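User: Predict ABC transporter, ATP-binding protein's structure from this.
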Amino acid sequence: DSSEPVIGLRDVTRRFGAKVALDRVSLSVPRGVVFGLVGANGAGKTTLIRHVLGLLKAQTGSVRVFGANPVADPAGVLARIGYLSEENDLPGWMRVPEFVRYSRAFYPRWDDGYAEELRHTFELPAGTRICNLSKGQRARVGLLVALAHRPELLVLDEPSSGLDPLVRRDILEAVIRTIADEGRTVLFSSHLLDEVERVSDHVCLLNQGRIVFSAPLDELKESHRSLTVRFDAP
Ligand code: ATP
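Assistant:
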């Protein structure tokens, strides 16, 4: 069903001990949209994303991804998602082609030709161990693996932390736009509002586990001033 949202959260609350990481979060991400999630460190972005991936189970409320509960069928859901984590923890002893071969085992719809094309586009050397690549190169390896099975949903958790502005613009923004132009969906998190604004169709601000603003980009721009003040307050 193409009218069904790709991601739907309803009243999701998540506690870690006394800490409320997500507080009655509801959101809906339609197909083909770039959905930007903005928030300071600790706002709950990663926790939200981990619910979408089925890595965390909702304590209350419901999570739907492609119409299903990701906890009930994590493998089925994950096969349709490309995911780049904030840590981007890669095996340093492998060379890029080895890591590509390793990663393809997890994705039934892996596209070898496209993976090799991305390796060239991202200018990733074949003969170097991952531990000897720069942080930016490692981010591109992570992105390659997230893209090579042509996921219906691309989830990027603060992907630009290690990237210089040029790489950000040339690679990250281009990748995100291409995916959206093809009618696929992107969930993109960052602590930088301007970065999210540049690529997103819809912006959602998280503050201490709560959604404080969620609207299409144009509405965000209108209320920009008051929001910035609110967002930057300690
Ligand atoms: P960052 O940019 O630092 O990754 P974030 O917006 O992704 O921030 P989360 O990582 O989702 O934020 O964390 C939200 C809150 O929940 C934080 O206060 C964090 O300390 C807490 N938290 C997250 N995971 C756990 C956990 N496994 N155990 C205890 N507390 C946790």
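The chain has nine helices and nine strands.
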